[in-house]
């Protein structure tokens, strides 16, 4: 992802600048798509709703990333996007996209790479679904740390539980354990600071014990 | 050639850019963890897509029938996160990243087709996330829905044996599940193929957890 961030910035003038308050829905799962978005400032979480109404957070889009590419070319949005703070986004219609690709042919490759990154993200979730919760949590913490390039990961425990798809109590127990071991610090503003990245990484990728792990590091 | 599937027709016109390859049944077309260089179009045969989880379990994600694209994940020139195995003797067309970029330049409308293809892969994976651990019944349901959603066609071009080979189940198990679905009016069996009458009934993951409890 780091090599995709901000790569779309040169094309922002083709888009339409939009401002959102916190907790605003940018696009909704199932709605007919009319284009995609670029997150310029703020934060965006991506939510998957299942047929029985179960909600799962599957991604936190970092600034400089694209979102809702599945809504290009009239495809229905397959997830929903909600702002996690006041945000500035740029919207690109199909027409804007085709104009960008006409003027800058390399943009099409950027666009497809960003789409494939999303497919990879989902494959990774599936790959860790059968791992113990503690390991899943470590894995996602490392992933958020890498994507946001900051050891202060802005996620509260409820959101974290929705990200791992477990209960908040389970998440709290493991976070408290890590805190006592000095691996993380919990601020009262609903953020997690990783104090020992290497230790968390170790928990996430116990390579020797799991035969498929080398495929997912 | 008349094809029942719309995406099929769309990709057919691009085959001249690809390289034709024959893959014997039960051989690997591309392997998880290896570097990818482009994607494949299945012209003839049947392919299953498996992903090995971090814990080392193999999870069947999808099956590919003629007219479908596989391996787009490696268009970003990173490693494959799935393995594609030819279930039957198959003919594929391979497109390298360079060829694809060439095609995109020649025909910019290809981006729309590619986006649709990738969005369908997203849907398959999202469905798999929601289904978590699948029972045999859930597995077959998800395979059928993936196919039908992609082709917008509810006539399934697979035999019971094909389904059994892909899901790693016996033909008897597949037969029992299909028979149950036939009785509840979800599918209709015609000659050797079958038509899904009520796809919405297959879509609820709840069904399978309940079945799993009662079995």
Automatic annotation (TrEMBL), chain A:
<dbReference type="GO" id="GO:0003677">
    <property type="term" value="F:DNA binding"/>
</dbReference>
<keyword id="KW-0805">Transcription regulation</keyword>
<dbReference type="GO" id="GO:0005829">
    <property type="term" value="C:cytosol"/>
</dbReference>
<dbReference type="InterPro" id="IPR018490">
    <property type="entry name" value="cNMP-bd_dom_sf"/>
</dbReference>
<feature type="domain" description="Cyclic nucleotide-binding">
    <location>
        <begin position="20"/>
        <end position="69"/>
    </location>
</feature>
<keyword id="KW-0010">Activator</keyword>
<keyword id="KW-0804">Transcription</keyword>
<dbReference type="Pfam" id="PF13545">
    <property type="entry name" value="HTH_Crp_2"/>
</dbReference>
<dbReference type="InterPro" id="IPR000595">
    <property type="entry name" value="cNMP-bd_dom"/>
</dbReference>
<dbReference type="InterPro" id="IPR012318">
    <property type="entry name" value="HTH_CRP"/>
</dbReference>
<keyword id="KW-0238">DNA-binding</keyword>
<dbReference type="InterPro" id="IPR036388">
    <property type="entry name" value="WH-like_DNA-bd_sf"/>
</dbReference>
<dbReference type="InterPro" id="IPR014710">
    <property type="entry name" value="RmlC-like_jellyroll"/>
</dbReference>
<dbReference type="Pfam" id="PF00027">
    <property type="entry name" value="cNMP_binding"/>
</dbReference>
<feature type="domain" description="HTH crp-type">
    <location>
        <begin position="131"/>
        <end position="198"/>
    </location>
</feature>
<protein>
    <submittedName>
        <fullName>Transcriptional regulator</fullName>
    </submittedName>
</protein>
<dbReference type="GO" id="GO:0003700">
    <property type="term" value="F:DNA-binding transcription factor activity"/>
</dbReference>
<dbReference type="InterPro" id="IPR050397">
    <property type="entry name" value="Env_Response_Regulators"/>
</dbReference>
<dbReference type="InterPro" id="IPR036390">
    <property type="entry name" value="WH_DNA-bd_sf"/>
</dbReference>
């Amino acid at each position: 992802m780091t090599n995709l961030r901000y790569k779309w910035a040169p094309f922002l003038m083709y888009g339409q600048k939009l401002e959102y308050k916190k907790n605003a829905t940018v696009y909704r799962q199932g709605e007919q798509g009319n284009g995609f978005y670029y997150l310029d400032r703020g934060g965006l979480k991506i939510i998957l709703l299942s047929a029985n109404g179960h909600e799962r957070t599957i991604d936190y889009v970092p600034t400089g990333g694209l979102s809702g590419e599945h809504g290009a070319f009239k495809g229905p949005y397959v997830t929903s996007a909600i702002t996690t703070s006041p945000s500035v986004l740029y919207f690109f219609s199909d027409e804007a996209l085709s104009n960008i690709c006409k003027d800058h042919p390399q943009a099409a490759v950027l666009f497809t790479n960003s789409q494939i990154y999303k497919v990879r993200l989902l494959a990774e979730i599936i790959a860790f679904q059968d791992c113990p919760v503690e390991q899943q949590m470590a894995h996602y913490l490392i992933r958020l740390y890498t994507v946001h390039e900051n050891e202060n990961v802005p996620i509260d425990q409820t959101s974290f539980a929705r990200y791992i798809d477990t209960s908040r109590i389970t998440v709290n127990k493991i976070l408290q354990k890590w805190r006592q071991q000095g691996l993380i610090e919990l601020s009262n503003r609903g953020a997690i600071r990783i104090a020992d990245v290497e230790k968390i990484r170790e928990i996430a990728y116990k390579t020797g014990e799991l035969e498929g792990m080398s495929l997912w590091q | 050639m008349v094809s029942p599937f719309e995406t099929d027709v769309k990709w057919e016109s691009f085959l001249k850019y690809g390289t034709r390859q024959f893959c014997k049944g039960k051989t690997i077309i591309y392997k998880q963890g290896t570097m990818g260089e482009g994607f494949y179009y299945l012209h003839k045969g049947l392919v299953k897509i498996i992903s090995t989880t971090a814990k080392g379990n193999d999870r069947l994600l999808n099956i590919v029938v003629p007219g479908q694209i596989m391996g787009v994940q490696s268009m970003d020139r990173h490693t494959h996160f799935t393995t594609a195995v030819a279930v039957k003797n198959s003919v594929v067309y391979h497109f390298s990243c360079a060829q694809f970029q060439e095609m995109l330049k020649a025909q910019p409308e290809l981006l729309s087709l590619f986006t649709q293809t990738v969005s369908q892969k997203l849907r398959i994976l999202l469905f798999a996330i929601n289904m978590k651990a699948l029972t045999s019944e859930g597995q077959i349901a998800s395979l059928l829905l993936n196919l039908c959603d992609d082709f917008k066609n509810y006539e399934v071009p697979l035999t019971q044996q094909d389904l059994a080979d892909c899901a790693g189940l016996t033909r008897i198990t597949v037969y029992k599940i299909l028979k149950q679905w036939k009785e509840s009016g979800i599918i209709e069996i015609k000659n050797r193929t079958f038509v899904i009458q009520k796809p919405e009934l297959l879509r609820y993951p709840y069904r399978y957890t309940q079945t799993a409890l009662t079995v």
